[in-house]
Write a structure and sequence with these properties.
By secondary structure, the chain is an alpha/beta fold. It is built from 10 helices and 9 strands.
Length: 280
């Protein structure tokens, strides 16, 4: 019989020996053991089995190769919720929570507005976060990627809002879009020349990052499509790249000259969100 023994190390020693920040090491070991991180902290005397040690070593190799931790763990926290992620969808970023916060604030102030559209939904993090936090909101979520929509569908079921979200495969939005009160979009906005600066590019889908030569190709196209709708939504929220805030505002003013348009900054103070509110 093959000897599968190795020098035993309790979890406290194991975490010390992993050449990664403590929180990352803790997350990896918790993933291998299928236990909450709080359980690990309460049981530092526990040991990994030989098979579990092998799993951990494989995960550490992926991490050392540069693979983002959310893809290794198959999940990412966003707006207090847990979302499945894989390389077919963009990893949700904390700065996108500003969009969700702004949408929820507007929905609370407008109780008759209870239909929304999320364009380029990816993992579904925006649409699902809105539906979870606004119990009578109905969402349409579109994406050009069928693989991304499968991830979004699983996330909708995870959070039990699948009956209030309609997932559709479209390039931006359908031509026969029904009236919606709210449109949200976190489209690809990284200028092609800047893609090399994105550390996760070898792992995340280029389709979800590349915004074309100036980063505004899809954003401009979406704004033009929305402007042609017979019934304009009350609020449009567009996330943009930090250096493209004013240019995005200029596009919005061309398409919606009568709207109230503001540029909002994220927590680090970077231009991040264009808010377009149509007057009644």
């Amino acid at each position: 019989m093959e000897n599968d023994h190795f020098p035993e190390r309790n979890l406290r020693d194991q975490l010390r020996e992993i050449d990664q920040p403590h929180q990352i090491a803790l997350a990896l070991v918790a993933h291998v053991l299928q236990k909450p991180k709080t359980w690990l902290l309460a049981h530092p005397e526990a040991h990994l089995s030989f098979a579990q040690q092998g799993q951990l070593d494989a995960l550490l190799e992926r991490l050392d190769a540069g693979e983002p931790l959310p893809y290794i763990l198959d999940r990412q926290d966003f707006f207090g919720l847990l979302f499945e992620v894989n390389p077919s969808v963009l990893i949700p970023r904390p700065e996108t929570e500003l969009l969700v916060e702004e949408a929820l604030q507007w929905l609370r102030a407008n109780p008759d507005a209870r239909t929304g559209l999320d364009v380029g939904t990816g993992s579904g993090c925006i649409a699902i976060s809105l539906a979870v936090n606004c119990r009578d909101l109905k969402m349409i979520a579109t994406d050009v990627s069928a693989d991304a929509l499968q991830v979004a569908n699983r996330n909708a079921h995870r959070h039990h809002i699948q009956d209030r979200i309609l997932l559709l495969q479209y390039d931006l939005l359908p031509s026969d879009l029904p009236k919606v009160d709210l449109i949200c979009a976190n489209l690809p906005y990284i200028p092609t020349a800047k893609l090399s600066q994105v550390n996760s590019l070898p792992w995340e889908p280029r389709l979800a990052l590349d915004g074309g030569e100036d980063g505004l190709g899809l954003i401009g196209k979406l704004l033009q499509k929305i402007a042609l709708l017979t019934s304009l939504p009350g609020l449009i929220l567009i996330e943009t790249e930090e250096t493209l805030g004013q240019a995005t505002v200029a596009l919005a003013k061309e398409c919606f000259p009568a709207a109230r348009i503001t540029l909002l900054k994220d927590l680090p103070g970077r231009d991040r969100l264009v808010r377009i509110e149509n007057k009644a």
